[in-house]
Design a protein that fits this description.
- The structure is a homotrimer.
- The first copy, chain A, has about 270 residues and is α+β, with helices and mostly antiparallel strands.
- Chain A is built from five helices and 15 strands.
- In chain A, the strands form two sheets. The first copy, chain A, has a seven-stranded mixed beta sheet with strand order 2-1-3-5-4-6-7, sandwiched between helices. A seven-stranded mixed beta barrel of chain A has the order 9-10-14-13-12-11-15.
- At the A-B interface, helix 1 of A face strand 1, strand 2 and helix 2 of B.
Chain lengths: ~270, ~270, ~270
């Protein structure tokens, strides 16, 4: 059974995601459709890109559609990418697919699908999910070869996405918040190894400073309940990133953190 | 594979939509269920009606359940409607199904299902989605003929829904907001042709006045990025309606627009 | 076709629920997955437990995964429970599964699955939905016997959940709010029979007092529209509980009610 996954910033209150399901079901009724999420913050290409990359290793090999597309109908291309691990990515060429392509071993073949024969006609200027991305994904899932979906393009010309990296600054580790989940846990663009700084004691308590001027003390830990209720833990999350959490409370709210903010971590 | 689609105002935080899936899966396990949306504003029959009509052309022919039902358990009837294009609509007879019936070519046969043999017993007074609409839809999707689902009724007696129409008033086009999407784009009850008023220059800039007293200047365009970031565009949306948007911002928030509001469009 | 249902407090904005779908589809592609809801209030084990119990009778017999798990990665066990009616429950042993187990006739067999052979390796400390509960559920849905999923444990040792009971106090019936739905209707831990108190006239009007000091008058009724718009009705809801509602308005907002609050009901 072919698998198509969807990740968008459409939300679920409009009919947009449901209509994409409908279009796919009409073209490739045997496909199983998995909604990764439709809750990417509106037009936040980076947040969508990182979420897709986090999810991909746990999804069956399939056609993975991602749509966070503020430039829809404008100059940006629509693309379908065959990855080295056999997955196919479909979406706008605006960096959204870039980290996921890396997770899948890189792009082996790429086509531009803006004028694909598998499009729905007429193509609207504002809803390419319905008119281009969903029907092309369905045709690919139904077994049509990638080269039938559009014009071949050079993978080297695909839009890249700069990945945030942690840095050391005045004896502090500075890391970006890449995601805030429903529980208020803040995923950082940093790994456990980044905590091994000269002069920092392993497992020692840490001071966390947010850009809003708030600060608190965090203990390194494995899971939320390694600290008392209401206390802050810095742990390696399920995606292998450092993440900041408060046991049974919301650290993002407490520190006023949002995606893209930089926090400073230093020994207490 | 039979297709059943669901559109409701149940939201996704309660178990209501999931329970409808469960009831259907128990009766017609081979059906594919597509959630159009469960995010219709609470008890807003008109918003639900227009959303269903917008989505329908992109859904496979199937049984289409819609539930926005403030009168549940009261005098309003439950109905199943066979449309000329082969679709079946199931839901309350309160106008919700009316525009979709038109999209499907009109009603060829109608039955009242309030006392359907396919109901779940006992029938609750407050959750007909679970007890009447889902099981009747599942029975129809499983191949039971429409006439087994209830008592025949005259399609001419179905509850209609008045569709808002644009009007010209003091050299302005006045149009209702029929939907505000997640991006804050405001869909209007008007078409591009309505902009061709005597003395209006084609493609000229327009003044938009909201009922809250806010106003702004909009340029006609094809897509969001046809105007600079933060500027307003009046475009034909993916459903063929005029819609107001701000490139990378939220026009409904900016103008304080809600569904049902009337805006005035005039040459700048 | 095997059925797996999911109930969590993950929300739908993160990729968590989608990733659980992906893991299941990889292990048991023939399973139908039904999302009961992912909108349980964060870490509210009681709310999740009651919601699962309300939904269960309407779901096909299957493997029912529930995850509201503030103690993830800590001392609490993960379990799979075979019920007398043939259902299997999978989730943390923190009381979440307890009411549903009762609905299904009680637990006939139980295994601890924290170290299950069906886990995904490596197991994270914070996302057992992905690494333990989803893959174990998928293996069970694929037909692997319960005893292959973990170590047998004594059902008598499972974590219970105290169920709130109504009580009579100074000529008032005091009942907890166990759920507030999208419409603001407040489900109570009480049944119609509890209204039959000595000296109370059947069908008489009632005074409702909320802990915030607000009060209003309610009429007993069958459904919302049994009272005028804006008036309050006390009805038996679709789960057989007493519930408080205002016709076309939001009683929880009006009275400031939240899950766990106690309201007082007395003759007017």
């Amino acid at each position: 059974m072919p698998v198509i996954t969807l990740l968008t910033d459409y939300g679920l209150d409009d009919e947009f995601a449901g209509v994409c399901h409908g279009v796919i079901a009409g073209i490739c009724p045997e496909a199983r459709i998995i909604d990764i999420t439709h809750g990417i913050p509106r037009q936040d290409v980076r947040a969508g890109a990182f979420t897709l990359a986090r999810a991909l290793p746990y999804l069956p090999i399939g056609v993975h559609v991602a749509i966070v597309d503020p430039g829809v109908g404008g100059a940006r291309r629509g693309v379908a990418l065959r990855l080295s691990d056999g997955r196919t990515l479909v979406g706008p060429d605006n960096g959204l697919l870039w980290p996921a392509a890396g997770v899948g071993g890189g792009v082996s073949d790429a086509v531009e699908i803006s004028g694909s024969r598998w499009r729905l006609e007429p193509v609207s200027a504002t809803f390419h999910g319905r008119d281009i991305f969903a029907p092309v994904a369905a045709a690919l899932a139904a077994g049509h070869p990638l080269e039938t979906a559009g014009e071949p393009i050079d993978p080297a010309g695909l839009q890249m996405l700069e990945l945030p990296e942690p840095r050391v600054e005045e004896a502090a580790l500075v890391a970006s918040v890449v995601w805030v989940d429903r529980f208020g846990n803040a995923q950082l663009a940093a790994r456990s190894a980044d905590l091994r700084q000269p002069g920092w004691s392993a497992g020692g308590r840490l001071r966390i400073d947010s850009p809003t001027g708030e600060s608190l003390t965090a203990s390194p830990g494995r899971t939320f309940s390694d600290v008392e209720e209401g206390e802050c833990v810095l742990l390696e999350d399920s995606a292998g990133h450092l993440a900041l959490a408060i046991n049974r409370d919301n650290v993002a709210e407490r520190l006023g953190l949002r995606i893209g903010d930089e926090i400073r971590i230093s020994p207490r």
